[in-house]
Amino acid sequence: MRFKIRRFDGERSYWQEFDVPVKRGMTVLECLYYIKENLDSTLSFRASCRMGVCGSCAVRINGKPMLACETQAFKLKEPVKIEPLKNFNVIRDLVTDFEGFFKKHEIVKPYLIRKSEGEIRQTPEQLKRYYIYTLCVKCGACVSACPVAKNSLGPMPIVSAYRFNEDSRDEGKEERLKILSDHIWHCHFVAECSEVCPKNLNPAEVIQRLRLEVLKFNVRW
Amino acid sequence: MKGLGWLMQLLTGLALTFLVAYHFLITHIFGSLQLNEVVARFHELKAFYAVLLVVVTFHAFNGLSVIAEEIGRGRLAKAFYVVMAVVMAYGLLLLLSV
Amino acid sequence: MRLNTMAFYLHRITGVILAIYLCVHLCFLTTVKTGQYSSLIKVTLSRQFLPFDLMLFLIGIYHGVNGVRLIIHEFGFLYRHRKVLLYLTFAIVLTLWIAVAWEVMR
């Protein structure tokens, strides 16, 4: 199959084509490894677990951000265009700078805030409320798909804030709602984030629900 | 404050679908654009047009303000609120003087 | 997937155009007072102006119907059916536009 990969060497940005012998069952990540091992060893990309739980290999494939390790090569239209994630600064080839991404995440205090002491108990029902949102792998696909993510928090931190707010062990809901009062209004419900999330977390829905909560919280004061 | 702006944009938007639809119907379908009819409508439906003016002006310039902020022009965004007030005042004066 | 982004950009562009139209419309209405209204209305009601009017209707109807879809979702409803609502939006916009164009052209 023909692959067209967006290369960047620090100065020049250009497309490079590769012909990869693809067998049924190969993922895009395996194709990238083939290129690196056999065709051009200067190709740079991030990857780690190869099974969709680390979030490292998110790239834009034919325009849509997805995890390279979870995408079957044969299902794609040729030539397969692979580019780095949008709304991120490119360091090299397919590797983007995630510093800003993590800094924005820190803004919402993504950790358990708890002052009570003693044993923490949680029922399975309480766990169900927020469990799927713990599955976010911070891959950045949602941020890449969002047209307003450059100047705002982006979908991922808001989903993370929701995950902690709904956690029965957490006591920092008010703090986070106050923080989100400054950042949550930029969403215009384009809902691309929900289309691309590899874990099917529906960030768009979460952001709307959280926005209404923030509104109610602000009106109370 | 920003949250209120967001909420108002939604509520004015919803109101506008009805207000603008009604305005369109009485202007283009169930009425004509002849000067005498237009003036008559302004006289009879002063309250409706006043409400329509305020709501649509808020929705339009608030919307433009949000876009201005997102492209990084904070001062332009604030300026739109001033323009909003001016246009509202001008429109109301115009309506009341016809 | 790209349909969502397209809908968003269209909503923005139609919004800006409608905002500009609002200002133009208010200027136009000022002529009711200053007297040039009758001569101006002859121009805007002419055959040549009809395509502009029809464009305006399409822009307004799109912004309104898509806006209602956004309002429904942003208040937290019908999220599971967002794809259906998106397609429905375009269908309704087209239908309403054809109906309006038909009525106005009579």
Structural write-up:
The complex is a heterotrimer of chains A (221), B (98) and C (106). With 221 residues, chain A is of the alpha+beta class. Chain A folds into two domains: 95 residues, Beta-grasp domain (Ubiquitin-like (UB roll)); 122 residues, Orthogonal Bundle (Fumarate Reductase Iron-sulfur Protein, Chain B, domain 2), CATH 1.10.1060.10. Chain A has eight helices and seven strands. Chain A is elongated, with a radius of gyration of 20 Å. With 98 residues, chain B is mainly α. In chain B, 89% of the residues lie in helices and 0% in strands. Chain B is elongated and about 45 Å long. The mean pLDDT of chain B is 90. Chain C has one domain: Fumarate reductase/succinate dehydrogenase, transmembrane subunit (3 helical TM bundles of succinate and fumarate reductases), CATH 1.20.1300. Chain C has four helices and no strands. Chain C is 85% helix and 0% strand. The termini of chain C are far apart. The chains are: A alpha+beta (221), B mainly alpha (98), C mainly alpha (106). Chains in contact: A-B, A-C, B-C.
Notable traits:
heterotrimer, A: 221 residues, alpha+beta, Ubiquitin-like (UB roll), Fumarate Reductase Iron-sulfur Protein, Chain B, domain 2, 2 domains, five-stranded mixed beta sheet, two-stranded antiparallel sheet, 8 helices, 7 strands, 14% strand, B: 98 residues, mainly alpha, 4 helices, 89% helix
N/C terminus separation of chain B: 36 Å
The number of domains of chain C is 1
Structural class of chain B: mainly alpha
- Helix percent of chain B reads over 70%
Which CATH architecture of chain C would you pick?
A: Up-down Bundle
In short:
The complex is a heterotrimer of chains A (221), B (98) and C (106). Helix content of chain A is 34%, strand content 14%. With 221 residues, chain A is α+β, with helices and mostly antiparallel strands.
List the helices and strands and how they pair.
The complex is a heterotrimer of chains A (221), B (98) and C (106).
Chain A lengths: L1 E7 L4 E7 L8 H12 L18 E4 L2 E4 L12 E4 L6 E3 L2 E2 L2 H9 L16 H7 L10 H5 L9 H11 L7 H8 L11 H5 L6 H18 L1
Parallel strand pairs in A: 1-5
Antiparallel strand pairs in A: 1-2, 3-4, 3-5, 6-7
Chain B lengths: L1 H28 L5 H10 L1 H25 L3 H24 L1
Helix pairs in contact in B: 1-3, 3-4
Chain C lengths: L1 H33 L2 H8 L5 H25 L7 H24 L1
Helix pairs in contact in C: 1-3, 3-4
